[in-house]
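User: I'm putting together notes for a lab meeting next week and I want to include a structural view of one of the chains we've been expressing. I don't have a solved structure, so I'd like a prediction I can at least talk through. The sequence is below, exactly as it appears in our construct file.
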Amino acid sequence: MFKSRPSHLFLILNSKTILVVNIKIKIVSLGKVPKKILEKVREELKIAFRMVGDITHTDRLPKSTYNQFRNQYRSHEVLNFLEKNYEGRILGITNEDLYTESLNFVFGQAKMRGRVALISISRLDPAFFRQPEDEDLFEGRAVKEAIHEVGHMTFGLGHCRNRECVMSFSNTIGDVDIKTKYLCDMCKMQIGL
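Assistant: Thanks for the context. Below is the predicted structure for the 193-residue chain, given as structure tokens.
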């Protein structure tokens, strides 16, 4: 039996849901995000979740989301901006530093089982930590965080205890570097991959 949902098509077999066709996502560059990172994220989302992505650009984050005392942007307000101004499933990528009220910073945030997610590449750049430029490391970190947030948004996956799983929580850049860009077997099983 086939069951369709907006931008999904699922094949239901023996109470298991198996993804059959591509899921559409729009990748929104919020500010100056390197084209190579946007392209790499789009490519890796297709591999990880069979997602087909379009890339669009906006000049910058809304001023209303900026906290001048912290010199950071409020991630939940940026998510609300994306939800209000874009249709469909959205992944925002910004080069600005983000935070949420309970944390000093976030690499990203998503509305669980929603349609908007967001990552910041600010602290993923080795230059942030005064380390030598490393394009592969930078792109790899961005890919991991994008897959992580899309996993929350699209599939409702929670944080995984397996530190190598892409769905593990990253409190530090070291945590990002330890994990891979792949879902562990338990997380794959949860979403039928």
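A couple of points you could mention at the meeting. The chain is about 30% helix and 30% strand. Confidence is low (pLDDT under 50) at residues 1-14.

User: Perfect, that's what I needed.
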